[in-house]
Records
---
Amino acid sequence: MSFTTRPELRGTFGMVASTHWLASGAGMSVLERGGNAFDAAVAAGFVLQVVEPHLNGPGGDVPALLWPAERGEPVVVCGQGPAPAAATIDAYRSLGLDLVPGTGPYAAVVPGAFDAWCLMLRDFGTWELADVLEAAIGYAGGGYPVVPGIRSAVLGLPDGWTSSIELYSPVPEVGELFRNRALAETYGRLTRSGGDSREARIDAARDAFYRGWVAEGIFASDERGLLSGDDLAGWAATLEVPVTLDYHGHTICKTGPWGQGPVLLQQLALLAGFDLAAMGPADFIHTVAECAKLAFADREAWYGDPDFVDVPLDALLSAGYADGRRALVGERASAELRPGAPDGREPVLPPLVSGAGGATIEPTVGLAGDTCHLDVADRHGNLVSATPSGGWLHGAAVVPGLGFCLGTRAQMFWLTEGLPSSLEPGKRPRTTLTPTLVLRDGEPYMAIGTPGGDMQDQWQLGALLGHLHFGRDLQAAIDAPSFHVNHFPSSFHPRALSLNELEIEERAGPDVVAELRRRGHDVLVSEPWSLGRVSAVAREPGGMLKAGANPRGMQGYAVGR
């Protein structure tokens, strides 16, 4: 048996894995008290908003992949809010901008997280909103231990963000309890929204947030940017059919191309033509990296909100297209950004800005790959994979009186006409948030995901391949040395790219690094435990549940029995 940083958990009752131990504990508490996986996921998601405010919040975004056992098919929850009606390319150009800013009110889109969690709870959960918010309110009002990233974010706040500075003064020390009483009051007041049924009370809270007193608080502040009351009032989270690909007896489910999710499927389609299990470490990493370069080039050229642009998704995921693209993978590393021409259509790339090297991550402080993730499996056969992010403490000032920030996801739009991800009013930004659901022989098997911006569909790919091809259990697959390429424009301001750059953990070993450099990769060697924050839960056909969580950053945890 090989060493792992912690055991792969196994049991039959329930499993929760997330990027923070308090969220995992809160989710498991819900399962223990009779809630289902969706109740537990929502409770854990709200706790993440409290205890990781530098990584997500109510004003941010959350996509989720669900398997509701009673429904018997996978479902996407789209909690990605769109651009304001006033957000035109000309409006930003008139401000003297060539790119959407990475911070501040002009990077805001409609907040998506609160409505998405409420939609999940209403349609698939069983608990009251007040009950799933109990732990979050307790931590916000009673205090939670500060992690290093929070302190770093507070120390980096701009002088003009007085509402944030006042809320987090004095600057909390790592490990001490911090209380966000404004957020506790916001949550508490939302739970008191009236109605004659559970569903009606949840909808009343959604109405209060998007059309009532929460929206009024946002528009009374200076943080609204181009957002209007109509933008919030006219939007709601939605349920969608996932995009899927069959791979070695498994069906991988992702969001549509309004997120980067299909890029994982494109990588798998390319890798399906290689005997990965027979490869040595350097050959394996080279092959995966070169396939990632091709898939992400297509992401840049073709992905965008399908309500606004014609994304040739069927062609991009077809076996014939993958066969043609696979022929481009050679023995040497490619230093070119090479999108394909699905259905004979000519690709168009955004402006390319050379970067200084390093990971294309969310512009957060601390560990690379900041955002949040959670996975839940219950004894009833339900699965949840959700990746909440945005509304970062460092991204925008706190809305006075509400205790949370608005998001900055608009920075993923281009202010260049004619691209699939060009800015348009009401359009969803092509987000990096990308949870994953895996079916095995048509039955629900695994929920997996990670924070990490542009690297999310590379880090979880490594764990998936380790599990599916090399027989590693969930924890061993998560613990294995991680790597990714930075061979595409960053999705985050200032949108730099680092062609041919491959970043790898030192634990891969000097011989592997030397061979990759011999093949032409520009290799950056990172700290031994620095790349990725993957977590996962899974369900075997006989009802055995299992889970693993990431040791990197020393926050993630899985619990279960």
---
Amino acid sequence: MLPNTKALLAFAGRFLLIFIFILPLWFLLTPAYNRLLASSANIVLSLVEDPHVTTLVGWRRNIAIVRAETPFRKGVKVQGFTGYLTHFNFILMTALVLAPRRIDWRRRCKVLAIALGILFVTHLLYLLIGLKFFQQPELEAFQSLAGRLYVWGLNLYLSVASQLFPVLIWMALYRTVRSIPGRGPVPESENAPEGDTGESDPNSSKNVYLVGLRQRHHASHSGYERFSRYVGTTLKPPLNFRRGSGALAGLVNRVVTAVTRHPRYSIGALLTEGAAAFHMLRHRDALYHVIYGDSDLWLLGYARLRTRNRLVATFHEPPAFLERFAIDRQRTKNLDAVVLVAESQRVHFEGLLPPWRVFVVPHGVDTDFFCPPERISDQQVCIAVGGKLRDFETFTLAINLIWRVDPSVRFVLVGTPHTKDAHLRRLRDERVHFRRGLSDEELRRAYQTSKLAVFSFRDSTVNNALLEAMACGLPIVATDVGGTRQYLGGESGVLCPPGDADALAAGVLQVLADPALATRMAAASRARALGYHYRIVADQLRQVYSKVLLTGHD
């Protein structure tokens, strides 16, 4: 018999013994768990608009749905959820944790506590989602065969979903702890590459892990996280989206936001952090970098306290939005350091962290892909890219002022909300071309066929579009807010006061009317952008990682 088969049979035998031992105990505990689950669901029930449901009651093996017109009392048949079947996977999880040999008991207890906590939240969501179906009046009419089949089918779906989803979660969690039952603990050196002892090496990025979800609207050659090609190891998130779509996703995200008190947090971020937290349990003296701390940071701060790892987060939003998104002392107190993309953000963190735990590392750009054209366009075309934090009122006023002086100037607007923004909807002119859904090559071509780039900001730290335009060798006319001056420098373009349409129009006309000035600005833009190549940004981050690994909170 093969060794792997022996190990599998030994594991199966221990699992069955523990399973049979725990089974009667859990049947005794089920009523208490039902009462706890029903009480917790009642607290969250206010988030679900449900006039038909008054409360939930945990009673024996059921959780009963008690309606206003049917008060609960013993002997009255009401709709409900079966407790024994719904919670049966608690026994499976407990047996799976206790069955393997040679695993530290502290590790077993940690994993079991986290797994049972996730399962409890899953059951809570299961109850809330089930209520959304049960409250429909047509489900209460059991007069027809079709109605009864519909209700039975729905109950079967909810029961199966409540079983399969937790088991799938548990399978993922269990693989992060030990992948093969009965194999025993794997020494740290066995998982490390040859020559890597597992100790923190300040000159190496092998013990640096990057956590976060990619922004879906970014081009494949864009995005802050592109520096990961040169430093660290990116942990693969369990989902490739943050919030999802549809009514069910909206309900789940509202629950997550209410529980975490984080207005931008989402179910995708929670699961991504959960996977990273289990990764933390397997590692020591490593550094974890949350790429988008504004929206994806909540759980890992607590997980960091339970391990000997370091935690760093990058924040991208301007100070006014950091305050609005509740980036406060509670959110940052467990961080070993924060990374900012602009000096203008530093003011927000002055009262939250000591200055030696705050680093400013610029946003990067792929200057190999975004590059100047072989031949500069001779047409009077201005490009504007993006819609976030843009001042389209000032921008549209500036366009009309430009046309009064030079009616031949054309504008290409990429990725702007022209169907939603009232000011852009008024730009019904053949000289304005709106474009969306461009490929990377089409976006680069749009930059290369333009004469200059215009950015009218309400607020800003930095953004991909500004750096991409600079990398393509375009003169820049932009609003002087946030980190714009830091990235542009003094020779790459014209900076205008916020909300000043006259200054914005004058800057565009000045560059278009002076080819020599445009050439100098184009060269300065390209030279400036080369200093923000992702490889250079990665080198600066590597220095931050080395300092944090050496000092931590000290």
